[in-house]
Amino acid sequence: MKTLIYLFAGVTISLSSCSSPLSDTPVSDPGLVTPHIVINHKDGDYGIANKVSTCLMDKNGAYIELLEGDVKVNGDLMEFGMTCYKRTIDVQENTVYKVVLTLADSAKYPFKVTTPHFFKKVDYPGKVKKGKAFEVSWKSEGNEQTTVNFSVQDTSDNWITLYEEITDQSMVTISPDNYPKGDISKGSITLYRSVNGKMPNGFNGGSVKANCIFERSIKIK
Question: Per-residue pLDDT for 13 more than 90?
């Protein structure tokens, strides 16, 4: 049995690649289900990617595909694929999104989360020099904390984090002095925010979150 590792807003969960026995029977008891819901907005090198994922797990971490029932986001049906329900949607900042899980007895369970404010006018260097400090700044509304990460790719193609900070400010100075040895030419700057939403009662744990990510590749000289 393979175990898939998912990263949900900084929290790693293990999801078995095997289907739960609950996929073969109508499920009406929410206490048998652990839902993990993520609304994701990512501004990356190749543009904007928006997606909602809803992973339903049993107590052993095996995935559940509902035999009867469904999952909707803002009234639109989410499709099951691989191990989770997914849908590509238009994600706006500071906006309430509602995911409704309907079980076999037609009982509906609403999950709500408000997306964080997006990063705007991010100023970062396209190239940085080893041993030299550089600044990253941004503009946005709201008062959510920002996690800033600077990583580089080593000669074995592994990504190594050289700097990470959680800040209330809109600028950081990055001055890493622990570059790995060898010819290092690729780096990445990531700005990240996550907001927890509200879950209905009765489930066996779980989470509902909205993420905002800004990520850019940079060159190392």
Answer: no
